[in-house]
Amino acid sequence: MDKFSNLAAERRSMRKFTDEKLTADEIRLLERAALIAPTSKHTNGWEFVAVDNPELLKSLSESKEAGAAFVADAPWALVVFGNPTLTDAWIEDCAISAIMVQLQATDLGLGSCWAHIRNRFAADGSSAADNVRRILGVKVPLEPLCIIAVGHKGMDRKPFDESRIQWDKIHDNKY
Ligand SMILES: Cc1cc2nc3c(=O)[nH]c(=O)nc-3n(C[C@H](O)[C@H](O)[C@H](O)COP(=O)(O)O)c2cc1C
């Protein structure tokens, strides 16, 4: 991938993965992308849990009622936590790190998908955030924003359809 304009369009959510594991070099680059993301006031108020244990991935996939099943299928996932006691911009900082990981995955020819955790609930009404903390042994005040699942693509996804870009969402000078 030689151009950001191509990379940005190639990143599509991938919810099916092959059984192939990621290499140590690939994981290193994915983690690096998370850690070099910009943060408000350079606080770096995030923490990440990198998960490759299949049982933990399965438990994480069940931490909320819907929309995280693909995590069980992935060989690797990065769980993104923010610390609201360190920065009021923890959601923004975590979200930027998460998309950096997704773009790095795309650059490596890998697929990825975001499973949202903040303000989500499991079928039994329990908080997805509490479930994720319990599964990974993480304590409050750390708040999980999302899980980024990464793996080798298990299906084809076309790049973003240029004809669907909503250019009318851009307002010149005044709304
Ligand atoms: C904040 C956020 C939360 C998301 N949560 C989920 C989720 O819980 N489960 C899921 O399957 N996809 C989730 N996604 C992926 C979106 O559904 C996806 O990005 C969107 O439909 C556009 O499709 P694309 O990524 O293939 O271009 C999330 C994306 C964002 C940015």
Task: Walk me through what this model shows.
The chain is of the alpha+beta class and 175 residues long. The protein has one domain (22-156): NADH Oxidase, CATH 3.40.109. The chain has helices at 4-10, 24-35, 54-61, 90-107, 128-136, and strands spanning 46-51, 76-82, 111-116, 143-151. Helix 2 packs antiparallel against helix 4 (90-107). The chain starts with a helix and ends in a 24-residue tail after the last strand.
Number of strands: 4
What number is the mean pLDDT? 97
- Lateral arrangement of strands in the main beta sheet: 1-2-4-3
Main sheet, how many strands, which sense, barrel? 4 strands, antiparallel
Bin the helical content. Answer: 25-40%
Structural class: alpha+beta
- Per CATH, the architecture is 3-Layer(aba) Sandwich
The helix count comes to 5
Beta content comes to 15-25%
Rounded to an integer in angstroms, the radius of gyration calculated over CA atoms is: 17 Å
How many structural domains are formed by the residues? 1
The CATH superfamily is known as NADH Oxidase
Bound molecules: flavin mononucleotide
Morphology call: globular
Low-pLDDT parts are none
CATH class: Alpha Beta
Q: Please give the alpha-carbon distance between the first and last residues.
A: 35 Å
Order of helices and strands: HHEHEHEHE
CATH topology label = NADH Oxidase
